[in-house]
Amino acid sequence: MNAAQLIPTPDVLQVPWGWFQVLLTVTFFMHLVVMNILLGCSIITFLRHASGKSTDVNKAIAGKLPLTVAFTVNFGVAPLLFLQVLYGNFMYTSSVLMAIYWLSIFAIVIFAYYGAYIYTMNYDRIVDYHTVLTGFIAGSLLAVAFILTNNLSFMTNVEAWPAYFNNAEGTLLNFTDRSLFPRYLHSVLGAIAVGGLSIAFYYDLKKRKGDTEAEANIKIGMNWFAGATMLNFGVGTWYWGLLPDSVRSLTGNGSAFFLFFLVLGTVTAILSLIYGLRHKVRPAVYYLLGSLFSMVLVREFARRLTLAPWFKTSDLEVVPQYSPMIAFLVSFAGGLWLIWYMIRLVLTDKEVNS
User: Fold this and answer.
1) Do 145 and 187 contact (CB within 8 A), yes or no?
2) pTM of this prediction exceeds 0.90
3) Which domains are present in the chain?
4) Range in 24-38, 50-64, 185-199 with the lowest mean pLDDT
5) What are the residues facing 318 on neighbouring strands?
């Protein structure tokens, strides 16, 4: 069967596709940072409890976990919507192929959220259950990450869609994609690295406020960051080798930008690692953020190169109607300001009470 016949007709846009692409890139980057902190810190906390290292690092993470879950979920809504606007004819199809798993994400996240609150609110009363509870939280988030990875893999692997006719139960997973597992592992190790660096950054702030015991915890966070990052260079190379030829050949439209941001992301990641090994927190954070943003762009160009035989966003029909976009941008800016205001209130309250 010709897989192209399974691709739905895309919807009409109200403004040129570039607007949605910029918003997708920016909002996904914001979501990626918070999401990596959540997943990475959850895994680190579980592994530290499992190894008997229940120090104040674990308790500090526990205090921030529910809030981080909320930020991750809320920051994930916008990029998902923009992805559906630009690639809805691919995203909706891939979601149908694995509908049971896709719809289960909501329940899994809710249970993980409950677990985070139980862990935080009862930290000192459930010492014997720390490992089990954090294992449940980390395992739930890892399951969500695997489902999302599968969906994004299905989305760009149109050739795998005819498998639906052999399994129409909504339980398909794209195990035919050789890059699936290195892609997933690359994401998980990246999350652990960001989680470790976020721990170091938190204690670096405390150190600058005069906490004499923060230095030891900075080293803990930086060691997690450096170790996960070094492993990820190997996994990233494995992942690169399994990408489609249309991506690795660097011959398609946009391949020059793809190569530029790939090199930039790799160089800034190396610089971040160098500072991480030296326990220089601030420079490591700055270079890591630069690397993450570069890799977000690499991810987008890779998706475009993969889908090029089937679809180009520049071909999307536009029927101009700018008022919804203006209303969204105003609401988006106001929402960001409110989030920043609430964060400042929380930080100010903690400073007053300390």
Assistant:
1) yes
2) yes
3) 8-325 (1.20.1630)
4) 50-64
5) 13
